[in-house]
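U., I forgot to send this yesterday:
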Amino acid sequence: MPLRIEPLPRMAGHLPFMRGRLGSLDDLNPGMVGAFGLASGCDSRTDLAALAMRETSAYFGSHFNANMKSAMDIDQRRALNSAAMAGAIVDLGDLMTDPATGGFDAVIRRTVAGICERGALPLMLGGEQWDVAPAIAGLRSTAIASAGMAVLVICAAPDEFVLEARDVHCLVSASPRSMANSACLPIAFRDVRQRFEGSLGSILGHLGTRPVHVALDASALASHWHGTNRRADFDGLSLSECRTLLRKLGAANIASLSITGLDPTINGLSLVKTGQRLLLTAILDLIYARLNVLGPRMERI
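Result:
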C-alpha cells in the first residue's frame, strides 16, 4: 500500500472531547474527567449536541497537552498548568439505547455511577433536561453521595423532574413557576446579575460540603447570545455571568456535571457555532477550577 502524501484535514480521524483520548471506564483514575455524549437515536433536537461540543473543543484541546508550555486563560490573565491537565480527560464516546439492559436511562445511570466509583468527574454532553434525572440517580447510588447530595440546576424553564426531584436543593432560573417551589432555593437570573456576590454566597452556603451535580441547560444563556435553545429567554445569563458563576462553583464539592439543551442545528448556528463556544468556555472554567490548574493572576505591565 503506497504511503499517503496528501494533506489530511485538521479534524481528521476520531474527534474526542478536548482532544483527549478515547477510552473506557477502566482508563479512568481519581481526579480525571470522564466525558460522554448522548445519542438517543430518536431524532432528538439535541442528538448532535455532543458532536458539536467535541468539534468546538478541538480548538482548546492543546490546553490539555503537556507540551503546551505557555497556555493562558486570557480572560482571567492566569497561566494554565498544562502538564497537570495532560491526560486528565477520557472520552467514553456516545451512549446508545440498550433495551436489553433497561433502556437509555439505565445506561446513563450506570455510566455516571461507574465514573464516580473510579473517583473521576462525569461530564455529560448533550441530551434534554429530563436526561439529568438518571444522571442524578447514578450519582446518588454511589458511596460518594451516600451521606447526602445536592443538585444545582441552571436553566430558564425547568422541566417537571426539576421541580419534583427530592435532591434539588438549589435552582437558578428565570422561570416564575420555579420561584414558588419551596423545596428549592430559587434564585432568579436578574438576582444573579444585580446582586451576584450575595446570590453566589447563598448558593454556596445552601450547597454546603455535599457532593453536587451541576446541571447547566443551554436555555440559561440569554437567547440573544446564541439562540440554540427554543426555551431560552432574553433575561437569561450573559456569557460573562455564566462563566463567573461556574468559575466560583469550583469552590463547591462538584461531583458531576451535565450540559443539556443545546440544539446546534437551528437558526443557522450549525455554521456559526456561537452557542457551543459559549457553553464550552463556561465548562472549561469549572473544570479548571476543579482541577486547580490556574496560576496566580498576572497584573498588567
